[in-house]
Amino acid sequence: MNIEREFPLHVAIWNNDIDKLAELIKHNKDRIEQFDPRHRTPIQLAVCLGRVEAARLLAQNDADCNAVSKDGWNLLQEAIANGNPSLVKLIMKYRNYQRNVQRIRGIPELLRKLKESPGILNGNSSFDSHESSF
């Protein structure tokens, strides 16, 4: 197995080569969530190794900041265990941003379902009555 060919982002992170990582991300966006042999994504490896700039670059390129390891640790827990406050702040910032984006994306579907529900938006539903359509 050729590790550099199979896991180029992971190797760049391991070597702390930010310029190489940036170039690889540009041309290998589909590998940003790739698992290495230890079942870690590139951002999980970056956080585990305390590579703040690598983690920042990955987060800025939509790496999943809500990732959970095979041992059940989320990325924020890994950052806290690392003991680097800058890394913790970075992961919290992007994790919260990604969660908000995900919630916002669900709003149009929620509104569509509300519109399709009889009585909810047209005032024909009484939530304080004893009648229930449930």
From TrEMBL:
Coiled coil: none annotated. InterPro entries: ANKRD13, Ankyrin_rpt, Ankyrin_rpt-contain_sf. The lineage of its organism: Eukaryota, Metazoa, Spiralia, Gnathifera, Rotifera. One of its GO terms (cellular component) is cytoplasm. PANTHER family: ANKYRIN REPEAT DOMAIN-CONTAINING PROTEIN 13, LD31969P. Gene3D superfamilies: Ankyrin repeat-containing domain. Keywords: ANK repeat. This is Uncharacterized protein. ANK repeats lie at residues 38-70.
